[in-house]
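Q: What does the assembled structure look like for these inputs?
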Amino acid sequence: MTKSNAKAYWKENIRYVLILLLVWFLVSYGAGIIFKDVLNNIKLGGFKLGFWFAQQGSMYVFVILIFVYVRLMNKLDKKYGYDE
Amino acid sequence: MSSMMLVAPLDVQNWTYIFVGITFAIYIGIAIWSRASSTKEFYVAGGGVSPLANGMATAADWMSAASFISMAGIISFAGYDGAVYLMGWTGGYVLLALLLAPYLRKFGKFTVPDFIGDRYYSKTARLVAVFCALLVSFTYVAGQMRGVGIVFSRFLEVDINTGVIIGMIIVLFYAVLGGMKGITYTQVAQYCVLIFAFMVPAIFISIQMTGNPIPQLGFGGKLADGSGTYLLDKLDGLSTELGFTEYTEGSKSLIDVFAITLALMVGTAGLPHVIVRFFTVKRVKDARKSAGIALLLIAILYTTAPAVAVFARTNMIETVSNQPYSGVPEWFKKWETTGLITFTDKNNDGRIQYVADASKNELVVDRDIMVLANPEIANLPGWVIALVAAGGLAAALSTAAGLLLVISASVSHDLIKKVIKPSISEKGELVAARLSAVGAVCVAGYFGIHPPGFVAAVVALAFGLAAASFFPAIILGVFYKRMNKEGAIAGMVVGITSMLLYMIKYKLGWFDDVVPDKSAWWFGISPEGFGTVAMILNFVVSITIMKFTPAPPEEVQDIVENIRIPSGAGEATH
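A:
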């Protein structure tokens, strides 16, 4: 494996991580905290939406994010020959 | 429901003896089956744990007495504000999976101080890390032992101290005998016990109150009484009627909610007993996957807890508010004898006034009892109540064991093997590891018998300490090749010192003889949230000092490049 291969792999990895962390930030700190009051004007059944994001929705998204990351990285490992 | 309790052949206490007896027998059986015979088995369970088993063990390791016993109770009193624990203690896994676990697994050593010591090519860095690991773990383990004591004293009606000692003996048995190997497989069993024990009453109560068997949906649904009112609307109404803030609104400031959530998330990712679990799997891809499985299994409890909080809060208000004291149910009397519920009839009308105004309020309920009392408040059958006791014990013991392992590995591996006596034999190190585990259990037991306040409050501070020390050092170690020992050491020292000072001043009040008022907090950030500030300080100091000091040696830069590539992880070694 050459050094440039490793560099390219690392660059793509960082891009994935940044995108996923942006979503991570938006659902928790965004929807659940900063914009909670605005979102609370919308109702989802008995839930106010901001409250729902803070106490339910963000956690569902967290789980999904990790599994998306696992899939992306497994593919990336294969692409660069780091799979085992 | 009450007729069901009458015809039940066994009472709650007998059911509790049966469940606790069976589960303890299972834990001891596993301990004997999985004895550790090498340091590698003792520290990282031999390195061949499957992602599923590691995910389950991580989940049990992670979910402590605070998650099981205290969290839903705290949320039921804090309403919206309780979200800091929910998001904080789950969101950290995203950071762990994306930023830490794969690289630390690739690095392939036994402990977190191992990484810090090697990456920063310095004994001082290793010693600072050992100090942080011990401080964080002891703060955290104190809360677990207190949880064990509460469960024993209430359900088996033994003295709290006796309860703590029984718990110590059990943990001692499988942690000392099996090390990480014993702990891993007991934790798998403990996850099953605790999740079952948490879900069964939650499902029962959800059906009772809303007709929906899924608690996560039930608490956003309408009441089962046919009134057509949403449960949350009703609770908001009850809360404002009694003078409390609306349940779904909360009363903490936005900046504090933000800071606490971030401190808990980052702290989660920096906790040594969680990180070290990822050393036990075979490959880097297994580390990523088991982080996902762990969070999924954790989320089952964490998404149910806010539902339990709403059910318990509504039920409690309806059962006691403005009711005659002479007619209170049996659970109320029982908890009163433990001192965790107190009633003072201030206006002498014989009724319980439960209101926000402290001068008129007559009822004080300890937040720690909400989950334990919830099945009784809802009149569930005796075996369900007993199940909760076994679950609480599983949660407390599994976390305690994980922490004890970190403590013993820090002493036997990082201090004795790496610093004091490098010539020690494999066998000698294993003996040292076992002896340190015994010592750690005794210290933990002491904290359990002389508990430092609220379980969750103390645990929350452990996160601040982890956030202030390990998280920046590890992140910079992986993502910033130029980061050197001078920067990392200075960062960790400044981070943990500022966190400790803030905690001592604003949480414990040791500097002023009284705990200062909220208005004195820096930027309106509570001690629980200060981990965020201390973490930022750590990052700033690390990077600034690094700019003025030499780059790390070539071979260390090579290590960094190597851990960024997932293949060839091999097995964990000295």
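The interface with chain B takes residues 1, 6, 9-10, 13, 17, 20-21, 24, 28-29, 32-34, 36, 40, 44-48, 51-52, 54-56, 58-60, 62-63, 65-67, 69-70, 73-74, 77, 81-84 of chain A (CB under 8 Å).
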